[in-house]
Amino acid sequence: MFRFLHSSDLHLGKRFGQMPEELRGQLTAARQGALARLAEAARAAGAGTILVAGDVFDTGTPTPATLRQALTQMAADPGLDWVLLPGNHDALAADELWAEAARRAPPNVRLAQRPEPIELAPGVVLMPAPCTTRRPGRDLTAWMDDAATPEGAIRLGLAHGAVQSFGEEGAEDVIAPDRAARAGLDYLALGDWHGQVRLDARTWYSGTPEPDRFKHDAPGRALAVSVAGPGAAPEVDPVDTGSFDWTRLAIGLLPGEDPAARLGAALPDVGRRGRTLLRVEATGRVRLAGQSALAAAVAEAAPDFAFLEFRGAGLALEPEAADLDAIDREGALRRAADVLMAEAADPARPPAERAAARAALARLYAFVAEDA
Ligand SMILES: [Mn+2]
Question: 192 C-alpha to center of ligand 1: Å?
Fold first, then answer.
């Protein structure tokens, strides 16, 4: 029985420049902290080896502190072996990074810099496919098909990249999704996709241990994998390793509903909010009063969260004469409100302009309501 932890896409040193300044350092530190959480998860699963399937570092030029502190953390438990694979963000082309890593790596850290078998344990052979460049232009796992391993050995693969091409170019970059079957692998540990995905019983993307975007809308995870012997189906268990949650909250509204109540009911537990980055995406139809109430409810909840972003581009204003009357029945304010309402509903205008008109109208409404 061989047990290991499969992870990928740590992106150590990622700077989060688009985030508020006071949050950036916390998010970067949370990524670095993922190393200790992976070590803990490995020990809890009884695994002695951690395979990192690429993008250990966010760039080929991490700061010396990022590199050295990562290696120091990996050295903290000499009973755990780490195997680090160059991914597309930290490809072999970053030769200074990998040379420095090789100089400083503790004995329990192996750098999978060549496509050749590595003996992880007696009878357990790992075949790595390090990324040579950001876009290697070929399937780097092809060599595994013909790689000879000792009779009766467990064959493991480690690679980084897509298994599917969505664009017109780059199809030759793609990893054969059936590589495990073709190469007789007991398990193929993949990285690149930041969400956890099972391709087949022997082929998984572990996902990142610490989320870094809203796209996947899932907590940070790794995989605890057990292989009983050559040919045996692996046992694969997801384990939680995340520190921050990146959560998308979709709210579809109808004009008669109370948007603030809907939002309140859908928000995560208060205790978790300080470690949650939340994107609220409102769609549907809303009246002016509802839009004001929603904006106020978002502003009220925001300080509980590490980050809260509101997206209302999918929200249509329901034209109600009574709402415009509440602004004014005639005069300059009413004329402004009529123009804004028309612009907000004009399909010929770009979405950003319509959103601006909607926001301006909501401001006008809130301003007048406050004054009253
Ligand atoms: Mn990545």
Answer: 4
Dist. CA 231 → ligand 1 center (Å):
30
Instruction: Give the C-alpha separation, 117 to 144, whole Å.
Output: 9
pLDDT by residue (tens digit) across 60-83?
Answer: 999 999 999 999 999 999 999 999
Please state, in angstroms and rounded to a whole number, the distance separating the CA atoms of residues 21 and 9: 23
- Report the separation in Å between the CA atom of 212 and the middle of ligand 1, taken as the mean of its atom positions: 10
What is the whole-number distance in angstroms between the Cα of residue 194 and the centre of ligand 1? 6
Please tell me the CATH code under which domain 2-240 is placed.
Answer: 3.60.21.10
- What's the CA-to-centroid distance between 130 and ligand 1, angstroms? 14
Delimit the domains of the chain by residue range: 2-240, 245-371
Nearest-angstrom CA–CA distance, 60 and 69? 16
Q: State pLDDT tens for residues 277-328.
A: 999 999 999 888 888 889 899 999 999 999 999 998 888 888 678 888 988 9
Q: Tokens at residue 370, please?
A: 């406050």
The total number of residues written for the chain in this structure? 372
For 175-225, the DSSP string reads: PPTTHHHHTT-SEEEEES-SS-EEEETTEEE---SS--SSTT-S--EEEEE
**Strand (E) or helix (H) holding 43:** helix 21-45
Q: How much distance in Å is there from the Cα of 89 to the middle of ligand 1?
A: 7
Report the C-alpha dihedral over residues 307, 312, 313, 319, rounded to 10 degrees. -170
R_g over Cα of the chain: 26
Q: What is the mean pLDDT of the chain?
A: 94
Secondary structure letter of residue 173 according to DSSP: G
Instruction: Compute, in angstroms, the gap from residue 59 CA to the centroid of ligand 1.
Output: 10
Please tell me the distance from the alpha carbon of residue 311 to that of residue 302, in angstroms, as a whole number: 13
- Centre of ligand 1 from the C-alpha of residue 87, in Å: 7
How remote is the CA of residue 201 from the centroid of ligand 1, in Å? Answer: 22
- Distance separating alpha carbons of residues 90 and 54, to the nearest angstrom: 8
CA of 91 to the centre of ligand 1 (A): 11
| Residue 84 CA to ligand 1 centre (angstroms) | 13
Rounded to an integer, what distance in angstroms lies between the CA atom of residue 167 and that of residue 162? 12
